[in-house]
Structures are given as C-alpha cells and as structure tokens.
Recover the amino acids of this structure.
C-alpha cells in the first residue's frame, strides 16, 4: 500500500465517528452484506458515513490490507476497526454494538 493511500484511509477513518467501507451507498447498497450493515446502523438511528469501494479500486484493495480483513463491508467506530457484516450482526444481537456506538458518539 502506498503511503498516500494509507494516509487517505487514515483520514477517512479519523474524520468519521462511524464509517462503513461498503459496496454501494447507504441509500443503495450493492450487496447483501453491505445492506445488513446499513440496516443495523439505521435501526440504531445513528449518523454514519459510507465509502463506496466500487467507485474507487485503490480503496477497495487498500482497505483489505489496511485492516488485514479480506472482505467488504468493513465497519470502523471511533477510528477502530470493528469487523464486517457477521461481526456487526453478532455485536448487535448481544447489545454490544449499541454501547460501542454510544461511546463513540459521546466522545
């Protein structure tokens, strides 16, 4: 990964309390896993931003290296990589996601 790409991803992650690297947008997810993440965050009623990896091949490949996670979507809360769709579903079902989100938005 180039230093420029790493810095670009760093800035995106730092500038947004809740950020999802996904296929599509929050209004129009382009895959079921991305849609799952959007639905969960919408259910929580929290503000979040998305990056459409389909629009940017560099980001699409780079984010996998950045997080050391092979799949998309990828969710970052308060600058910390949380996981993908399965992890988010599990955290939501255990009510742990709500706590993470509340802490992030309060900081």
């Amino acid at each position: 990964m180039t230093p420029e790409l790493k810095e670009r991803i760093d800035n995106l992650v730092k500038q947004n309390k809740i950020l999802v690297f996904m296929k599509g947008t929050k209004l129009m997810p382009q895959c079921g896993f991305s849609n799952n993440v959007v639905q969960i965050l919408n259910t929580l009623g929290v503000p979040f931003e998305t990056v459409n990896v389909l629009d940017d091949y560099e980001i699409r490949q780079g984010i996998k290296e950045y997080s050391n996670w092979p799949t998309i979507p990828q969710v970052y809360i308060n600058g910390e990589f949380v996981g993908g769709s399965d992890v988010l579903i599990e955290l939501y079902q255990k009510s742990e996601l709500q706590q993470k989100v509340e802490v992030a938005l309060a900081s």
